[in-house]
Amino acid sequence: MEYRNSEYLDEAYQTGRGMIFVFWHGDLFFAGCAGNRENKKRKIYILTSKSRDGEVLTRFLHKLGFGTVRGSSYQGGLAGFFSLHDKLHIGANTALALDGSRGPRYDAKPGAIMLAKTSGALLVPGAIHCSLKVSLKSWDRCEIPLPFSRCQVRIGKPVSVSRDIDREELEKIRKSLETNLLELKGITR
C-alpha cells in the first residue's frame, strides 16, 4: 500500500480539528484497509447501513479496529448523522461514502458537507486505486483487491466548511468535492 499526498493529512492533524474522510461507496473495503494507519492515530467511526450487507461490513470493520455508526439515507439517516456528529465532538474522526448508500454512483450527496458545517470538522477526500481487482456487479461496482495487487491511496486537499454558508455555496463545495474525488479515482466525465 502506497500513500500519495499524505502531507495533506499531516496538515489536517496540525489544525487539531476533527476529520471526515469521504470516499466513493465502491471503495469502502479499500477505505477500511487503507484507513487502518489513520485509525491508529485517532479512532475513526465509519457510517454503515442497517441492512444485512451493512452488518457484514460492520463486523469486518470491527475486526480491523474501526468503530461504526449505523444508518443510511434510507434507514436511520438522522440518527446516523447525529451519532457521527457526537463522535467528532469527543475527538474521533469519521468516514462515510460521499455517494450515499444507494447512489447513483459517483454522485456526491450533501450529508458530509452538512456534517462538516455543523461540527467544524475538515472534509478529507480519499480514493484508492489497485492494480489488480475484481469489481462486483452491484450499483457501486465495489472493488475488491486481488492478492499481490499494488494499491495506491490518494488523499485530496482538506476542505473547510463555514458554519454560515448558504445553499449556493454548499452546492459549489459539493460539486468541487465530487470533481476532486473523481480526479483522485482517475475518472473523467
Describe this structure in words.
By secondary structure, this protein is an alpha/beta fold. It has one domain (2-185): Cobalt-precorrin-4 Transmethylase, domain 1 (3-Layer(aba) Sandwich). Helices cover 40% and strands 22% of the residues. It is globular and about 45 Å long.
Brief overview, please?
With 189 residues, the chain is α/β, with parallel strands linked by helices.
- The tally of beta strands, per DSSP, is 9
Instruction: Based on the coordinates given, report the CATH architecture.
Output: 3-Layer(aba) Sandwich
Largest sheet: 7 strands, mixed
Q: Give the helices and strands as they follow along the chain.
A: EHEHHEHEHEHEEEEH
Looking at this structure, what is the CATH superfamily?
A: Tetrapyrrole methylase, N-terminal domain
Distance between the termini: 27 Å
